[in-house]
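user: can you give me the structure for this one chain? tokens are fine.
assistant: on it. calling the predictor now.
[tool input]
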Amino acid sequence: MATFWKICVVVILALFSQVFAQMGKRGPMGGWADVSENNQHVQNALKFAKDEYNKDRKEDYITEISRIIRLRQQVVAGMKYSMEVEAMVSPCSESEFTKGECQDQQTSKKRCSFEVLIVVWENRKELRKGYCSSKRN
């Protein structure tokens, strides 16, 4: 019987060492992980962030995302996305800009930071952080 428990302990220790070795490669569980811009979920979160940012604004509308700087995701009670992008910003809304009604208005590049929480099973999307600042060189 004692041999059986010794074998169980060795097997459990071996499993734990494998789990911890894998965690070291991917970062801590529940921590932030980089994600590809080709990931459809992160693209949906980015579109949602842009649309929410533009809602009820009176100026500085994001007309397009010109460059991805960093995209990360974190598993929480749902999925949290952190997105750093460079965006083209205009004093005109996206629809005005697209229709050509604001061609004489200047656009500028700004660095934008967004954090979106998506809880699929509650059908909830929330822009937790969204701001743009003048582009840093």
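assistant: here you go. The CA atoms of residues 78 and 122 lie 9 Å apart. The two ends are 69 Å apart (CA to CA).
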